[in-house]
């Protein structure tokens, strides 16, 4: 028996008036991530997302390419820009990569997120995103995004530093300068704005010119977020969730990224050249829940296509 059987689902909280304009501007053009199995739960993306929203389609190991392409086609047909993942370590060889790119092109996809992937051992010839970028297979794509790690990545730098991560970022930035593709760095999600601000400033000092699309965990139960944060290797900002978990009054309410995004939005408003270009959502508590939160906090920037 449920402890609170008659409790209604709370409406997404809106930002205070003083920060609303900054947050709306910061959320403009946001992107969101789905998987084939989660996309199936959405009857029509036009009912929840602004027209033209970029929708990443995550390619988890074991997902057939046919399912990925079918999901991409469905979302393209509904009027959205689709960016499928290309995880190097699950792609057998260049012939497979070329085949995947061709299949996506056939359904109108011209964008891709190029990343190493989270599997420990490569299944074939590729192990890094740089190898995929150098392959030449993405000729004809308009936009290529790469992964960014504001809090480092222990799979890449086992010693806890970020030496290899930064070296890869410099290489990707140099690649962007010699190609005509539009490029950006889409990051892992974080929960603390200050390390993100410091990291973006450091990219600028290092001469890394890729604009940042900052990863944000959408509204979700605290337990869900902690589980994903640990699994995805989220670093120091995990302490934000751990501190929240100690507050019994907050255990019954979902986490919402309002405070995190408001701080970044305020910094961007005060520093227009700050390197974060867009927000990218990981809808860990559900796509519809995430979209509703953006609509509540983003005003026109979160307005669903069918409401335009």
Structural write-up:
Keywords: Oxidoreductase. InterPro entries: FAD-linked_oxidoreductase-like. This protein is α/β, with parallel strands linked by helices. Helices cover 38% and strands 16% of the residues. It has a single domain (17-298), classed as TIM Barrel (Alpha-Beta Barrel). The protein has helices spanning 17-27, 36-39, 65-77, 94-106, 129-134, 163-177, 193-205, 222-231, 238-245, 258-270, 287-298, and strands spanning 31-34, 54-57, 81-87, 111-115, 143-148, 182-190, 212-217, 276-282. The longest helix is centred in the middle third of the chain and has 15 residues, at 163-177.
Q: Which secondary structure elements does this structure contain, and how are they paired or packed?
A:
Layout: H1 17-27, E1 31-34, H2 36-39, E2 54-57, H3 65-77, E3 81-87, H4 94-106, E4 111-115, H5 129-134, E5 143-148, H6 163-177, E6 182-190, H7 193-205, E7 212-217, H8 222-231, H9 238-245, H10 258-270, E8 276-282, H11 287-298
Parallel strand pairs: 1-2, 1-8, 2-3, 3-4, 4-5, 5-6, 6-7, 7-8
Helix pairs in contact: 1-10, 7-10, 8-9
């Amino acid at each position: 028996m449920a402890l609170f059987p008659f409790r209604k689902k709370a409406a997404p909280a809106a930002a205070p008036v003083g920060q609303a304009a900054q947050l709306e501007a910061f959320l403009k053009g946001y992107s969101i991530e789905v998987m084939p199995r989660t996309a199936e739960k959405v009857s029509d993306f036009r009912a929840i997302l602004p027209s033209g929203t970029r929708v990443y389609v995550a390619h988890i190991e074991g997902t057939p390419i046919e399912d990925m392409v079918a999901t991409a086609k469905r979302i393209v047909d509904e009027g959205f820009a689709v960016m499928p993942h290309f995880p190097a370590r699950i792609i057998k060889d260049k012939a497979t990569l070329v085949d995947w790119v061709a299949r996506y092109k056939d359904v109108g996809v011209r964008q891709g997120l190029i990343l190493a992937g989270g599997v420990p051992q490569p299944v074939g010839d590729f192990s890094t995103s740089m190898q995929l970028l150098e392959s030449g297979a993405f000729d004809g794509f308009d936009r290529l995004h790469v992964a960014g790690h504001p809090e480092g990545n222990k799979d890449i730098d086992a010693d806890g530093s970020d030496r290899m991560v930064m070296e890869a970022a410099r290489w990707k930035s140099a690649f962007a300068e010699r190609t005509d593709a539009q490029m950006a760095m889409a990051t892992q999600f974080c929960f603390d704005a200050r390390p993100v601000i410091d990291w973006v400033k450091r990219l600028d000092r290092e001469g890394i010119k890729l604009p940042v699309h900052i990863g944000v965990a959408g509204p979700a139960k605290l337990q869900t977020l902690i589980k994903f944060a640990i699994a995805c290797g989220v670093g120091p900002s995990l302490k934000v969730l751990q501190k929240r978990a100690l507050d019994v009054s907050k255990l019954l309410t979902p986490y919402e990224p309002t405070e995190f995004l408001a701080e970044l939005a305020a910094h961007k408003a005060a520093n227009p050249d700050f390197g974060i270009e867009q927000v990218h959502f990981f809808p860990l508590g559900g796509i519809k829940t995430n979209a509703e939160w953006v609509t509540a906090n983003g005003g026109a920037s979160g307005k669903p296509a069918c409401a335009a």
